[in-house]
Each structure stands twice: as C-alpha cells, then as structure tokens.
Amino acid sequence: MIDNAAYTLDSNIITYIKECLSKEHSESYLIAVLHKVQQTYGYLSQEHMDEVAHLLRVPTSTVSGVATFYHFFRLQPRGKFAISICMGTACFVKGADQVLDAFERELGIRVGETTSDGLFSIEGSRCLGVCAMAPVVMINDQVFSKVTAQQVSQLLHDVTQEN
C-alpha cells in the first residue's frame, strides 16, 4: 500500500501511479507519469523523479534517462518569460543562431537555463511551424517574427514592460 503522506508528489499523481500499477506493464506508463508531474510542477525535480522511480518500481536511472532523452521534459523551472528560439532549417539559415547567441549574452544564461531571478529561461525549439516568418522567437505564447540579434535587448525590455 502506498502512503501518500510519505511523498511530496501531488495526490492526483500518486492516484494515477496507483492506477498504472494495477495494469499490465505498469512501467510503460513512465512517460505519461512524467508528463503529469511536469504539468503539475512545471518541471521535473530530482526529488519528484526519485519518487516516481520508487512508486513505479523502476530504477532511478531509467527515469533520469527518459527525462533527459526527451526534449519536452524540463529539469529546471521555467522562467516567468519562457523564450523559445526556433532552430529549424529556415530559421537557422536566416540567423537564428545569432539570435540565440544574443539572448544568451544579454541574459547571461544558456539554452536550458533560467536566470537567477526566475524571470527568463531559454529553450531551443526544432521548429515552431512558421517558417515564412523566420527567424522566429516565441516568448510564452507570443510569436515574434523576423527577429535579428540587434532586436533582442529591446524585445526583452518590451515583454517585461507589457507584463
């Protein structure tokens, strides 16, 4: 029997894991469980991954391996402003790498990191699906098209002033 009080995971996640354990090949629900954890907390903390491993009865290395293999999973909290730079072919050819470099210089962080004040995080994206507007940057749900490295500082200023 699983004692919910022994875990920091949300009770809804623990209930879902219990449901998974009652099914054949319960370990095959690992990705779905990790999605629920990330949906609840915004990222996968080491503590939560350890608890998932224990509850699903799989090695911690398996959980870590899955979490680091799939691009969708985040291992750090996102900033208030999640910046996603499209690195698809059209965007890359039109200078997305320079735009990314400018964001990293301006914020002092690299892809996958969050600023110490929790305001900004940078993520790379394989394709945002708006190739005609390349290079594209998405900040939270807002899309910015034909972004240049020279616009990055003003773009950061503008989004913080709007919110």
Overview of this structure, please?
The chain is of the alpha+beta class. It has 2 domains: 4-69, Orthogonal Bundle (Arc Repressor Mutant, subunit A), CATH 1.10.10; 81-162, Glutaredoxin. Helix content is 44%, strand content 11%. The protein is built from 7 helices and 4 strands; from the N terminus they run ααααβααβββα. A 4-stranded mixed sheet has the order 2-1-3-4, covered by helices on one side. Strand 3 (137-139) and strand 4 (142-144) form a beta hairpin. Helix 2 (30-41) packs antiparallel against helix 3 (46-56). The protein is elongated and about 55 Å long. 25% of the residues are buried. The mean pLDDT is 92.
Could you write a compact summary of the structure shown?
The chain contains 7 helices and 4 strands, in the order ααααβααβββα. The chain is α+β, with helices and mostly antiparallel strands and 163 residues long. The protein has 2 domains: 4-69, Arc Repressor Mutant, subunit A (Orthogonal Bundle), CATH 1.10.10; 81-162, Glutaredoxin.
Q: Average pLDDT across residues? A: 92
Count of folded domains:
2
Main β-sheet description: 4 strands, mixed
Query: What overall geometry do the principal axes of the alpha carbons give?
Result: elongated
Succession of helices and strands: HHHHEHHEEEH
Supply the number of helical segments: 7
Output the keywords.
163 residues, alpha+beta, Arc Repressor Mutant, subunit A, Glutaredoxin, 2 domains, four-stranded mixed beta sheet, 7 helices, 44% helix, elongated
Helix/strand layout:
Layout: H1 11-21, H2 30-41, H3 46-56, H4 60-69, E1 81-86, H5 89-93, H6 96-107, E2 120-125, E3 137-139, E4 142-144, H7 152-162
Parallel strand pairs: 1-2
Antiparallel strand pairs: 1-3, 3-4
